[in-house]
Design brief:
With 151 residues, this protein is mainly alpha-helical. It has one domain. It is built from seven helices and two strands. It has a two-stranded antiparallel ribbon. Strand 1 and strand 2 form a beta hairpin. The mean pLDDT is 93.
Length: 151
């Protein structure tokens, strides 16, 4: 089964092939937006990965992936940790590529600010509280409502 590490590896691969730098914070947002748009494109029938997305101070985060790349700090991630296992579904790859084209050109700070303006993160984040999961339904509802304006 595909997981968030596969998707992260693919995003890091895309960053390497395009020359667009990706830090851990930026990777987290690209994971989040890829997850959201796969939900929208499959009418909430398919999750891109099963790991929870949590509301952290700098926006949505997949904790397991964050921990894996934490050692990079604010530096660019040059290659996927532990080998490269990519996304196997071609339709999902296309969505991730589209997300990367749209969101990948933004800086980590721009993506943090963007995610802070959006209801899925904004409505659940509570300062000082940890491990608050952003509900799948909230992500789907918001992104499906803005689909005509976005991807």
């Amino acid at each position: 089964m595909q997981n968030a590490f596969n998707v992260a590896s693919y995003i890091i691969y895309l960053a390497g092939t395009t020359g667009e730098p990706v830090t851990n914070i930026k990777l987290q947002k690209l994971l989040y937006y890829s997850y959201a748009w796969v939900l929208v494109e499959t009418n909430n029938q398919v999750e891109l990965f099963p790991e929870p997305i949590q509301a952290w101070p700098y926006g949505p985060v997949v904790p397991a992936v964050y921990k894996k790349y934490k050692k990079y700090g604010a530096d660019n991630i040059k290659e996927a940790e532990g080998g490269v296992e990519f996304v196997q579904n071609d339709d999902q790859k296309i969505i991730i590529q589209d997300v990367f084209k749209i969101y990948g050109a933004k800086s980590a700070l721009q993506l943090v600010e963007l995610s802070h303006c959006e209801p899925p993160w904004r409505d659940v984040y509570k300062e000082g509280q940890k491990e608050i999961v952003i509900p799948r339904q909230a992500i789907f509802d918001y992104f499906s409502s803005i689909k005509p304006q976005a991807i």
